[in-house]
Design goal:
single chain; 31 helices; alpha/beta; 947 residues; Rossmann fold; seven-stranded mixed beta sheet
Length: 947
């Protein structure tokens, strides 16, 4: 038996699935239930005072035990709620009174000098006075770091955090060198923003002012991660502070950024594309700390906040898997330790964007886990112009992360040591437990949402406070001067040296010219942009020897000994094998499985296949059966994994936005893998429109990031109502331009087989959107022969009519795409219309105008060209193909299809049948009397079926 992985997934069970019983020695409950507690407590207290121990059953012993329980409850309260009293807001605007249950009086400990026994429960301390205990608790839990972690079920994870926070000597400490390094990064962060403000007055840059502590914090993640096995970090972030991160963390040359500010591009001029604003761009670099090299990549992203999150997670997952390809028996824990995803967020976006919850939900799911993500919230305490009280219903923006039991570090943003300490512990936690973790850095936004805003319009009190508030660098510099770590002259010299460096780069920025783009390096080596025009035939040798197909089919349809599959599935498997042996009648699912099988066994270089969607294992329509479930044990068997190749199939979480973004990120990292996302029904992709618009359709033009993701969208009008008919084909066609994507609507299993293989075998990558069928999955005419997939066969952008035709007789040419072809052909054949030829346009973009022009030349007596579609006139292909057809043949086509409609389809069976009958006869050119008769007949037939 196998799982969905190509190799075993040793990801540990999530903490909420692991038992917390039996109790761990020395935890709160076991201490309170200890039968011998009175004697132990009294003896320990007496020993600390240098006195003899009282009798075990004395009143003093009982009081000591009672105080122990009270102290234990107070400790637990601080662990749970101490963060509520932490000093977090640099502006002092947040109303955070001391909760009553954090006082000793609340717990009945009224004597501050009373010594209590806590049995090593807290930081190894045996006995302590009440006042000392309160002091230590407040220092540990109510300082500049407020820790939320008691919602975590796993005792080991809680213990890990307690060991780093609890105890008499637990204070944030850095070496003199470490302090100077933090100060230096703060100076760079602050002076970089000030330099941009001076040189480019009024230009948007979405600066980091107020949140500069994020820069040394990110450096800490790189350094601590590198020391704990990380060799690659994938970063995603919004536009605020992005330029600072690019410059001071990613080490993007300052002069390149200055050149972009002047209107130039950091890519060569001959590359083309639209480009994007500078605070959306990505970068990659290598950093080294303590001889540990770490590769950093910052993903480009649009202004759609948080949309980049699933892309980063998918890219990280793919990178982890790639690192395991050449490792014998790799363990996921080892691979995930090497690649760390880091996501930066705004506070309002983290609380307000649903994609955040979708991505958190991936953290423990097989096939989507990337071993834990470090989330860093730059908490400005305002979202654009909206105050937190109006932006969320929870105390903190980070509360959504409790759904996956992530520990949360709330940090005072004006204390860069506290922020850096929090990232250090968070990174260590992620590396040990492979879990998501959140740092919530409370800070402020010195200017408006962008530098042209006036924030005092909406936050007058906050910005009155900000105007008088010193910068993070100034405050930390004063602190280090007071500690005698540096002098004021040292700080002035650091600032002057950095500004001089910026000035030097500014002077050379005008002469900067990029010499190369970075989009075809590494795993993408050998791939390139297509050299031929977008209208050209871009074929590939996608045919496979028939005997090889038969051999693969035998393996795919052999039920292993010891595996008991469902009786219905057994009949399906035998029937499919019979069609392959006969070489005729292969259905859609058989062709698909053969395409996958040939790719994972391709020679000389095999390709991986990753298929995901909400029901992709079985298939929404019970058509695929890529996963066989043993009827006795429930174990899974995946026939395609029996070929020795790299095949994955996952039934995904119930998400479109998150999962499609994840798969896009996966395909971005691994162009040697056919990555497919399948919608349960085509229009469910609506929920992922941001990924489609901003990444899939425009990512290459904006960011020079090619991608070969395939979207499988079930589409076809079978009377199933508005939500189960249309994949919104028109939306994808509207996005088509500049050779950005491919859109297809295949009608035969063979053509589907070839288009999947073509996606990998050509030396370039373009996203592919396929309208996949529903009723055609089992249609008796929508079948192919093995020869149509054999050697010499290929993908056809247009497919011939199935019926033989005399070109001299053809007067009417019907162009169509998808399922409607078979309805047209059946009606045409029934009426004996040998003057009608039906041409299937299988690839809609790039539009095959050259092929269409050749067909028109074949028919010397052609009078009329028709475009027929099932979709309403304002949907489907019509608006897109109308000018394309005219350009190709110099003649306008006639429209035959449904009238324009607000809903994609009717949900009434009789109306559907009438509409379908009408459009078919109109396409054939039947007179109005015949059309009306056909409509009456279809209405009567549908009514009889309903009865």
């Amino acid at each position: 038996m196998q799982d969905e992985q190509g190799f075993p997934d040793t990801l540990p069970r999530p903490s909420w699935a692991r038992p917390s019983w039996p109790l761990i020695p020395d935890d709160e409950l076991t201490l309170a239930l200890d039968a011998g507690l009175p004697g132990k407590a009294a003896a320990a207290i007496a020993k600390s005072a240098g006195k003899p121990a009282p009798a075990v059953d004395s009143g003093e012993a009982r009081r000591a035990a009672d105080d122990t329980v009270k102290a234990t409850m107070m400790i637990r309260t601080y662990r749970v709620r101490g963060h509520l009293a932490a000093n977090l807001d640099p502006l002092g605007l947040a109303d955070r009174p001391m909760p009553a249950d954090l006082t000793p009086d609340y717990h009945g400990l009224t004597d501050p000098n009373r010594t209590v026994y806590i049995g090593g429960l807290f930081g190894g301390i045996e006995t302590v006075t009440v006042s000392e205990l309160v002091e230590i608790l407040r220092r540990n839990y109510c300082g500049h770091v407020g820790l939320e972690y008691m919602h975590i079920n796993d005792v080991e994870e809680r213990r890990f955090l307690q060991e780093r926070f609890e105890g008499r000597d637990k204070e944030i400490q850095f070496t003199p060198e470490g302090k100077k390094a933090i100060l230096n990064k703060l100076i760079e962060a602050e002076q970089f923003e000030k330099f941009l403000a001076r040189k480019y007055v009024g230009t948007k840059r979405f600066g980091l002012e107020g949140g500069e502590a994020a820069i040394p914090a990110l450096e800490s993640i790189i350094k601590v991660g590198g020391a704990n096995g990380v060799n690659e970090i994938v970063i995603g972030m919004p536009h605020r502070g992005r330029l600072n991160v690019l410059a001071n963390v990613m080490r993007k040359p300052y002069r390149t950024i200055f050149f972009e500010f002047s209107g130039g591009s950091s890519n060569p001029e001959d590359i083309g594309g639209s480009g994007d604003v500078k605070y959306h761009l990505g970068a990659s670099t290598d950093r080294e700390f303590d001889n540990n090299k770490v590769h950093l990549s910052l993903a480009p992203n649009p202004s759609h906040l948080e949309a980049v999150n699933p892309v980063v997670l998918g890219k990280a997952r793919a990178t982890q898997r790639l690192k395991g390809l050449n490792v014998a028996s790799p363990a996921w824990s080892d691979l995930q330790n090497q690649v760390l995803p880091v996501l930066l967020h705004g506070d309002a976006a983290f609380a307000g964007q649903g994609i955040v919850a979708e991505c958190l939900g991936f953290s423990g799911v097989r096939g989507y886990s990337s071993g834990g993500t470090i989330h860093f919230i730059v908490n400005n305490q305002v979202g654009f112009t909206t105050s937190p009280a109006f932006a969320r219903s929870s105390p903190y923006p980070s509360d959504v992360a409790k759904m996956v039991q992530a520990p949360i570090f709330h940090v005072y943003g004006d204390d860069p040591e506290a922020v850096t300490f929090a990232t250090k512990v968070a990174t260590e936690f992620r590396q040990k437990f492979h879990r998501d973790v959140v740092i919530d850095m409370w800070c402020y936004r010195r200017f408006g949402h962008n530098e042209s805003d006036e924030p005092a319009f909406t936050q007058p009190l906050m910005y009155a406070r900000i105007r008088d508030h010193k910068s993070v660098a100034a405050l930390y510099g004063e602190r280090l001067v007071a500690e005698a770590q540096v002098t004021a002259d040292d700080i002035a010299a650091m600032e002057a040296n950095f500004i001089a460096r910026l000035e030097a780069d500014f002077e050379t920025a005008s002469s900067f010219r990029a010499d190369k783009a970075d989009w075809f390096g590494g795993r993408w080596m050998g791939l390139h942009q297509p050299a031929d025009p977008v209208t050209a035939r871009r074929s590939a040798d996608t045919g496979v020897a028939v005997e090889q197909l038969r051999a693969l089919a035998y393996k795919l349809h052999t039920v292993p000994e010891g595996v008991t599959i469902h009786r219905t599935l057994e009949r399906v498997v035998k029937a499919r094998e019979a069609t392959v042996l006969a070489g005729e009648g292969l259905d859609w699912a058989t062709a698909e499985s053969l395409a996958f099988a040939t790719l994972v066994t391709e020679k000389p270089e095999s390709y991986g296949v990753r298929l995901s969607g909400q029901d992709s294992g079985r298939g929404t329509f019970s058509q695929r059966h890529a996963v066989w479930v043993d009827q006795n044990s429930g174990q899974k068997y995946i026939p395609l994994n029996n070929l020795g190749g790299d095949f994955e199939v996952y039934d995904s979480p119930l998400s479109e936005f998150g999962v499609l973004g994840f798969e896009y990120g996966y395909a971005m990292a691994d162009p040697k893998k056919l990555v497919l996302w399948e919608a349960q029904f085509g229009d469910f992709a609506n929920g992922a429109q941001v990924i489609i618009d901003q990444f899939i359709a425009a990512g290459e033009a904006k960011w020079l990031r090619a991608n070969g993701l395939v979207m499988l969208l079930p589409h076809g009008y079978e009377g199933q109502g508005p939500e189960h008919s249309s994949a919104r084909l028109e939306r994808y066609l509207q996005l088509c331009a500049e050779d950005n994507i491919q859109v297809a609507n295949c009608t035969t299993p063979a053509n589907y087989f070839h288009i999947l293989r073509r996606q990998m075998l050509r030396p370039f990558r373009k996203p592919l959107i396929i309208m996949t069928p529903k009723s055609l999955l089992r249609h008796k005419r929508a079948v192919s022969s093995l020869a149509e997939m054999g050697e010499g066969s290929t993908f056809h952008r247009c497919l011939d009519d199935l019926a033989p035709a005399d070109p001299a007789k053809i007067k009417r040419l019907i162009l169509c795409s998808g399922k409607v072809y078979y309805d047209l052909a059946d009606e045409r054949d029934a009426k004996g219309r040998d003057d009608v030829y039906i041409l299937r346009v299988e690839q809609l973009y790039p539009f095959p105008g050259d092929v269409l022009a050749e067909y028109v030349k074949r028919f010397p007596k052609l009078e009329t060209v028709v475009w027929c579609q099932e979709e309403p006139k304002n949907a489907g292909s019509w608006s897109f193909v109308d000018p394309m057809i005219e350009e190709a043949i110099g003649q306008r086509a006639i429209y035959a299809g449904r009238a324009a409609a607000a809903a994609t389809a009717t949900g009434l069976a009789r109306r559907h049948a009438a509409e379908q009958a009408k459009l078919i006869l109109e396409a054939l050119g039947e007179d109005k009397k015949a059309v009306r008769a056909a409509i009456r007949s279809s209405l009567k037939s549908s009514a009889t079926k309903a009865a």
